Amino acid sequence: MRGATHTRAIGAGRHRPHALMQHWRRLRRDQLGVFGLVLVVLMVGSAILAPWIVPYDHTELMTGGRLAAPTWDHPLGTDQLGRDVFSRLVMGGRVALQVALAALTAALSAGLVLGLIAGFGPRWLDSGMLLVLDAVRAFPVVIFALAVVTLLGPSLWTIVLVVAITSVPIYARIVRTQTQSLRNNEFIQAERALGAGTPRILAIHIMPNVIGPLLILASMDVPLVITMEAGLSFLGMGVQPPTPSWGTILNDGFNHISNSPWPVIAGGIPIILTTLGFTFLGEALRDIFDPKLRKDV
């Protein structure tokens, strides 16, 4: 028995790289998926390498004329304080990525735990948790953000907290539904018959089956989080000056749009490209990993 199990493990290890290559070939055949991957790589790469990419300090004043048009020295022009818009844009992408990663990681972790408990627990616990999750989800995000900002003050981590709390119900309900569809399967019943406890069943048999769709959904939610961060910063409830944010760049640009349209254009383009990139890549990954939605079936 041990030899047969060892042989199956070796076979699974050999087939895993082959499966990854098949997924990669499917992704390469999806032109929109490849385009999204390129945009995502550019966005993530520029955020990671931001300190070495920017030609100027993003807080340095009067690096050029105020509200100047694009030049070789300032590819995207300057803002009302003479700061280089390109430098602030790249550093703002770093802030946006930090917010997205922190908020989605917290929301995914909390949603995964709550969804597993609700889906595998007794009916009364499931009903109570659904009531709480629906109440949180029904609360208007802007009103909730205003309340949190009033209590804690506007900051980067306030945005992370607002986004994480408002996103938890979405992931928790998805995990709950997946868990309920798996809890009565034959392999779960077999594990119970062999004496496996609830923590082992949840950690080894159910969680690996629900984490994949959850990660794909999270990749498609990245632009939503970035847009939310930009919107709150635009309203003055998020990232505070002099920290750059795409929302504050847009706010400054709209206040001086009659003098120069370049800050508004520069602040809007990365939000559009990021949304397209993560959406196209997320849809391509969904088609690859979800057999029911795979295009080539």
Task: Describe the protein.
- The protein is an all-alpha fold.
- The protein has a single domain (2-289), classed as MetI-like fold (Orthogonal Bundle), CATH 1.10.3720.10.
- Helices cover 75% and strands 0% of the residues.
- It is built from 11 helices and no strands.
- It has helices spanning 2-29, 31-48, 50-53, 85-120, 123-138, 141-152, 156-182, 186-193, 198-234, 246-255, 262-289.
- It is globular and about 75 Å long.
- Mean pLDDT is 81; it is low at 1-15 and 293-297.
Total number of beta strands:
0
Task: Give the CATH topology.
Answer: MetI-like fold
For the record, the CATH architecture stands as Orthogonal Bundle
Head-to-tail CA distance between termini: 36 Å
SSE pattern, N- to C-terminal: HHHHHHHHHHH
What general outline do the C-alpha atoms trace? globular
Helix % is over 70%
Oligomer: single chain
What's the CATH H-level superfamily name?
MetI-like
Give the helix tally: 11
Strand content: under 5%
Count of individual domains: 1
Weakly predicted, low-confidence segments = 1-15, 293-297
Name of the top-level CATH class? Mainly Alpha
Q: Label the structural class.
A: mainly alpha
